[in-house]
Amino acid sequence: MKHFFVQGTSAFLGFTFWGAGMVKLYAGHNFIQWIGPPWLVERLAEFDLGLYAQFIAVCQICIGFMLITTRYKLLGSIMLVPMILNILMVTISQHWRGTPYVLGVLLAMNFFILWQYKNYFIPILNETSLIRKNQRKSSKTILGHLVWLCGLGLCLVSVSVSYYNLIPAFIMAGMGLIAGILSFKLDRNYTIVRYS
Description:
Layout: H1 2-25, H2 40-45, H3 50-68, H4 73-93, H5 99-116, H6 122-125, H7 142-161, H8 166-195
Helix pairs in contact: 1-3, 1-5, 3-4, 4-5, 7-8
């Protein structure tokens, strides 16, 4: 049951930030999302921060993709902490009401994921601690990583395609998301064939 909550929280946070990044960059802001103003890039461009806002949007897409596909949820959760704090500073400086509270809840959800991996932080916090040599080998394969990376690439390329035609852009983003999620299945199939 705990595994279900961790995976569900990761997928929810991933969808939240992946969608928030995609909607900021898509043509006409035509993308699904529930949080964040889609016009943030234009708003910050008034203060010569348009490139910064685009950078934040691309980071939201990448981090969100890590979390929604759950393949790299630990790395995504670590990267999400400064992302949320960065967005929090923008919302506070722009005097947006309510948004800091929503970000606080999202940050708490992210800390829930990080708490599940607390043992992984011991070598980071104490470099002299030994990593156990008899640790289980990862079941993730290079082929799975490449398929996941292609999925992320499709999502990013779909942003450019959206300025020409939205339907192919949506299809590319959907295919990228499916590829990222199914990369685990590829790992399992490859491992079974390899060791059978």
